[in-house]
Amino acid sequence: MRAFAFSSEPLDPERHRAALADPASGGYASFEGWVRDHNEGRRVERLEYEAFEALAIKEGERIVADAVARFGVSRAACVHRVGSLGIGDLAVWVGVASAHRGEAFAACRYIIDEVKHRVPIWKKEHYADGDSGWVNCERCAAAAQPHDHEHDHDGAHAPAAHHARSAADPGRDFEHDYSRQVALPEVGTAGQAKLAAAAVLVVGAGGLGVPVLQYLAAAGVGRIGILDGDRVEASNLHRQPLYGIADIGHFKAEVAAGRLATLNCDMRIDAIATHATHGNIDELVADYDVVVECTDNFRAKFLVNDAVVRSGKPAVFASVHQYEGQLQVYRPEPGWPCLRCLWPSAPRDGLVGNCAEAGVLGPVPATLGAMQAMQALKLLLGLGATEAPALVMVDLLTLEMRRLTARRNPACDHDLDVSAETPDAAPLELEFETLAAARASGLELIDIREAWERRFDSPDASIPAHCPLSELVNGRAAFPRDGRYLIVCAHGVRSLSLTEHLRSLGQTEVFSLRGGLAALRA
Amino acid sequence: MIDVHVQYFAVLRERAGLSQETVATAAATAAELYDELATRHPFNLPRSMLRVAINDEFADWSRRLGTGDRIVFIPPVAGG
Question: Mapping DSSP to helix (H, G, I), strand (E, B) and coil, where does residue A252 land?
Fold first, then answer.
């Protein structure tokens, strides 16, 4: 079957599915879009789809081919209806066959999202009150590729004009105009070529990572890796405006990759939707020229530090706390301190507060992230070579910036990995699929989230034993000693820190719930 | 007694309830000064977790203080 096709006849999912059958595939995912009976509060009775097929098929085929290449699936296809459809009719079908289910779901999601964004298809809704209108031209609203045309969503929306302009859309033939940065004598065409040849790994696509990703992609960095295993949460949006409401629940790495692709069609993006671990960090760091560390926890920061020191790669670190931020560049050169030179006893997460515990205004990580992007560009362009190593402290309440000269610590091991779990010791983390399984483990569950985090727990998901981390840190509460405990928080970061801390105090029967409550099935 | 200028950041600023102060102290070293200040402010971080900078340069805790020194106590921060 064709990778992308239109049909004026009703779609037959069974037939399409059979066409994807492949003995090497162990998984199949599909998406069906149905005609629904309402839109924006109006009753819809039927609708019509129109497409400029020659152009739309080309774009559709490109999307399916991208998905196959990007997610490594065996086969994929998409069929879209045109013509007149009634309520409940199948409007679009996407199917993906793959060796494994994860890629099948991801590719399926990618294809339907991109088709809705990029393929020029128009929908005319006929309402119960006799009125009708062309709607939902997502290409107009939020195209995945740069384009410009008037917005005209009334009945006179003119597909012809639309097509003509779409055909002239820059898309993949778009030539980026870097003239405003090439004009800088320190950049020039040679500098631009350096950026195009460079690869940057951004660890963490949150408040710091978002501006880093946006500015590096916009500047024409040739390849960007986005390493983040988190999914977008509603509480992220105020400081991570690369993401939107519809992205909640999706992997940040994948959503960010999609957005960056709309900003720069020359670059390659590696969406790595997993956390940095001892097992993967060295291999990842080895694959890039510069690492920008944008996570919100010490474990990851020191993990990245140790990997860049071992591999001799430069890195840019930053962290924020409420209205303040710290920025540090590491160069693999004599005299340059690493993160451990400055912080010889790797701090424990949870003791100094992260964004969830301490609060933060969006422009604070945005400012520090923009500074990180600038430092990364300087490293790639060979600027700032005379800069002395320092920790830069920024206070956005007082608008003061302070540069504290830092030196390499002769006593520092630089990549001493004290946080590594030794194989002989009992594991710090335990993994459970459900809360019931955790309860059945024989360990007593203790919730260390703050009271406000527990407000929305459903009654059957509640954990009676509550000991907020802030109370422990302040010394207002003590962690119980006689028993075997499974420490639980939202994502498993704070619980792991506390577990490490308690183990260091000699309490052996404590464990952290890996991934926290977010990792559990209901 | 010498007068030194002290600045606090992040959790230390919150705990001290102020971002800077001028202190008359008999402390000879940065370590003694922190321990002295910790009796006046409810600091919850052990000195081993902090760094100190004197006159815009990272310094050892054993560094002798001089009158007029600008001292910054820096906790690590992790938010992102």
Answer: helix
Tokens linked to A84: 């007149």
CATH superfamily ID and name for A4-173: Molybdopterin biosynthesis MoaE subunit (3.90.1170.40)
Q: How many domains does chain B fold into? A: 1
As given in the structure block, the two tokens for residue A213 are 């990703």
CA–CA separation, A149 vs A132, rounded Å?
23
Q: The domain at A179-405 falls in which architecture?
A: 3-Layer(aba) Sandwich (3.40)
pLDDT digits (tens, 9 = 90+) for A36-47: 998 878 888 888
Task: Compare all CA atoms of chain B with the CA of A204 and give the residue at the minimum distance.
Answer: B80
Contact at CB, A343 and B51, closer than 8 angstroms: yes
ipTM: 0.75
- Residue B25's DSSP bridge partners are B2
Q: Are B79 and A393 an interchain contact pair (Cβ–Cβ within 8 Å)? A: no
CATH of segment(s) A429-519: 3.40.250.10
Q: CA A225 to CA A272: how far, in whole Å?
A: 7
> Tokens 């939202």 correspond to what residue?
A490
The angle, 0 to 180 degrees and rounded to 10, between the axes of the packed helices A101-118 and A252-263 is 40
- For residue range A107-151, what is the model confidence (pLDDT) as tens digits? 999 899 888 877 777 788 888 888 877 664 444 333 333 333 333
DSSP state, A153?
Answer: -
Distance separating alpha carbons of residues A391 and A405, to the nearest angstrom: 7
Which H, E and C letters describe B20-66, residue by residue? EEEEEECCCEHHHHHHHHHHHCCCCCCHHHCEEEECCEEECCCCECC
Instruction: Tell me which residue of A469, A457, A462 sits closest to A497, measured CA to CA.
Output: A469
Q: Domain-by-domain residue ranges, chain A? A: 4-173, 179-405, 429-519
Nearest to B79 among A355, A404, A406 (CB): A355
pTM score, whole prediction: 0.57
Find how far residue A177's CA is from the centre of its chain.
Answer: 27
Query: Mind giving me the DSSP string for A101-130?
Result: HHHHHHHHHHHHHHHHHHS-EEEEEEETTS
CA-based torsion, A188, A189, A192, A198: positive or negative:
negative
Judge: A345–B48 Cβ closer than 8 Å, yes or no.
yes
Asked, for residue B80, whether it belongs to a domain, the answer is: no
- Helical ranges in A39-92 per DSSP H: 53-71
A-interface mutation test, from B58, B62, B73, most A Cβ less than 10 A away: B58
